[in-house]
Amino acid sequence: MSVPTEHLLALAAILFAIGVAGFFTRRNLIVVLMSIELMLNAANLTLVAGSRLHSSTGAVQVDGPILVIFIIAVAAVEAAVGLALVIALYRQKQTVSLDAFARLED
Amino acid sequence: MVNLLFYAAALVAVLTAAGVVLARNPVVSVVSLLSCFGSLAVIYLLAGFQFLAAIQILVYGGAIMVLFLFVVMLLNLGGLSPEAEDRDAPLFHDRRRSAGGLAVAVALGSASLIGILRGARHLTEPTNGFVLPDEGYDALPALAEAMFTRYSLPFEAASVLLLATTVGVMVLAKRQRSVPPAGEERP
């Protein structure tokens, strides 16, 4: 594949922007968590693009793929904790709308 | 031909990502995000990262998205009435907040796109045009060697993080019994 690096980076930027839009506009807690996953994937795509650029000029660099693996592990952790929190909050209010959790005291 | 496949996968990724944000029904969002991750796996494969493509399918598609789908079905969010879905996901109801979020996203996206396209001529693309090594850019022997030598501390930290998460999530999701507050006598 001889796609220039900037096209990969542009795709990552678009995906990240879509994730930011979902994060700020949606009120459904689960969709907000999915938007965060989308942003993490955009970051992964950026790392892949950079790793490809630097590997193809000489020796293969594995720092990018390793960082991607760690990000995927942390994303799995984040999803598990976030969804457990969603379940705990749903027990309190019977809803997953963020508007119901705007006040800290109740 | 391979480039065409990349642009097709990129188009699918962008469309399904938009579907995640725009869909009213959370189940549609989950399936849409799953296809987005699938097309990203195709892109990784085309770029020469076979192992990352496999991990993307296995961990994201197989584990994380199933977790999301499981919670959506556990909380029975898919079968809400249209009014309840509007109340839960009022993308176009609170127009002020939606406009603010969209403005932030558009500003961020266009700023980074302009930066990428302006900075692209400073990138030194390889003159031989990305000749793929046989084993790809993430060959497992090289990956494993780096993982267990230079990156052994983050590796161990990740295992501790996973253990802490397992315990923490079990405590969080456990059904709480009605315990009287501390200091009060149990009647």
What does this structure look like?
The complex is a heterodimer of chains A (106) and B (187). In chain A, 75% of the residues lie in helices and 0% in strands. Chain A has 106 residues and is mainly alpha-helical. In chain A, helix 1 (5-25) packs antiparallel against helix 2 and helix 2 (29-56) runs antiparallel to helix 3. Chain B is mainly alpha-helical and 187 residues long. In chain B, 70% of the residues lie in helices and 0% in strands. Chain B is built from 7 helices and no strands. The radius of gyration of chain B is 23 Å and the shape is globular. Classes of the chains: A mainly alpha (106), B mainly alpha (187). Chains A and B meet through helix 1, helix 2 and helix 3 of A and helix 1, helix 2, helix 3, helix 5 and helix 6 of B.
How are the SSEs placed, and which strands pair?
The complex is a heterodimer of chains A (106) and B (187).
Chain A: H1 5-25, H2 29-56, H3 63-93
Helix pairs in contact in A: 1-2, 2-3
Chain B: H1 2-22, H2 26-47, H3 50-74, H4 82-88, H5 95-119, H6 140-148, H7 152-173
Helix pairs in contact in B: 1-2, 2-3
Short note summarizing the structure:
By secondary structure, chain A is mainly α. Chain A has helices at 5-25, 29-56, 63-93.
Kindly report the CATH topology of the largest domain in chain B. Answer: Four Helix Bundle (Hemerythrin (Met), subunit A)
The level 1 CATH classification of the largest domain in chain B is: Mainly Alpha
For the terminal residues of chain A, how far apart are their CA atoms?
Answer: 54 Å
**Can you tell me the CATH topology of chain A?**
Helix Hairpins
Oligomer: heterodimer
Give the biggest beta sheet of chain A. none
Mind telling me the CATH superfamily name of the largest domain in chain B? NADH-ubiquinone/plastoquinone oxidoreductase chain 6, subunit NuoJ
Counting DSSP E segments of at least 2 residues, the number of strands of chain A comes to 0
The gyration radius over C-alpha positions of chain B equals: 23 Å
Name the overall outline of chain A.
elongated
Number of continuous helical runs of chain B: 7
